[in-house]
Amino acid sequence: MLFIVLVLVLAALGLLVAALITANSLWAWISIGLSVVAGLLLLFDLLRRRKKRAAEAPAEEAAAEAPAEEDEAAEGEEKKPEDVEQTVLMPAAGELGDAEDTPEPQQNGDPGEEKSDPADVAIVSELEIEVVVVDEYPRYHVTSCEWLETRDTIPLGIGEARQLGFTPCALCTPDAEIAGKHREKA
Fold first, then answer.
1. What pTM value is reported for the model?
2. What would the pLDDT profile of 16-40 be if each residue is shown by its tens digit?
């Protein structure tokens, strides 16, 4: 049907060009007539498709109602175990098995700031010890900090880290640890 409409539209276009070239209005009227016929064919095709869909809809509704009626009839009967949908339960935290096999969850968020002793800060600021930082987090850490786990770290000198605005981690207490190691050496 669409192929016929396409041919009619192309013919109407050709006749319109002929009408313009020859200055003959008859060709223009024939072009308009072909365009109207093409429009009527499209409208006829649209109505035919709607009617076809309307005839298919009751059949689909009847098919959808049939399983619903079967479910209502089966409500009085006890369902067999294979018909019942089972929910798989996850074990509780203590029932996961060996504690050694269970990975510890990665700590999220900021670990907090160490409350540094002013004497430790004075010692640490003079040293060129390397600490690590994590992009997008405001703390510096010693490399053995538990919070780091598998995070990507950036090594910096402790003085540079402080100048950039990083503060010491509350978990690994880098100021206290580094100052303590420095005191032991001295």
1. 0.42
2. 898 899 988 898 999 999 999 989 9
**Is 141:133 a contact under the CB 8 Å cutoff?**
yes
**CA-to-CA dists, residue 125 to 16, 73, 130, angstroms:** 90, 81, 12
Residues 121 and 175: their CA atoms lie apart, in Å, by 6
How far from chain centre, in Å, is Cα 75?
40
DSSP lists the bridge partners of residue 130 as 157
CA-wise closest residue to 155 among 172, 134, 176, 170: 134
The dihedrals phi and psi of 183, each to the nearest 5 degrees, come to: -65, -40
Question: Packing angle between helix 2-22 and helix 25-74, nearest 10 degrees?
Answer: 160
> Hey, how many other C-beta atoms are within 10 angstroms of the C-beta on 1?
11
DSSP state of 150: T
